[in-house]
Give the backbone structure.
Amino acid sequence: MSKIWRETGFVDNDPWVIETEEVKAGEGQKPLLGLDELIAKADESNEVGFGVLIKPADDVRKLEPYLYRLEIVAVAFPAFNDGRAFSHASLLRGRLGYTNELRAVGDVLIDQIPLMQRVGIDSFAVANETAIKRLTERRLPGIPHHYQPAVRDADAGKGYSWRRQAKPAA
C-alpha cells in the first residue's frame, strides 16, 4: 500500500485512486483516469477537478487543452531505470505551465525524490519500506551540486544557476 508524501510530511485520506480490475474508487475517492479516458470525459462535459495518470509511452502534450481542468497529474515510474516520467514532469511544468499537483507513482525510491522535486514533482506515492522509513525520519538525501537548470532553482548566488552548489543537508 502506498503512502502519499509531500515536503510537509505524509498525507492522510488522499482521495486519488489508480483504478484496476480489483480496485475501484469508492465513496469520497476520485479516480486517476488514463490519458485517453480523460480526453473522452473532458470532451463530453464541462467538469473540472479531474485527475490523470500519465504512463511512460503517453504523449503528455495532449493534455495542454485540458490543463486548467486538472486537479492532479500523476506520472508513472514503472521501474527505477525508466526515467520518461522525469521528461513528462519537466514538460508539464516548464513548457506547458501546469501549476497544480504533480505526483510520482510507481517505483518511487528515496534517492530519486530530490531529482523528482527538481523537475517539479511535489507529491509522491511511496510504497518502498526503506523510503517510507527515511521520509518518516525526515532523512531525505541531499544533492550537493546541480549542473543544469530545473523547475526548482538552486540557491541564488554568483555565476550560472547550473553551477551553483546546493546548501548542505541539515
Remarks:
- Strands lie at 3-6, 9-11, 16-17, 30-31, 33-34, 50-54, 70-77, 101-106, 123-126.
- The chain has a mean pLDDT of 86.
- The first strand starts at residue 3 and ends at 6.
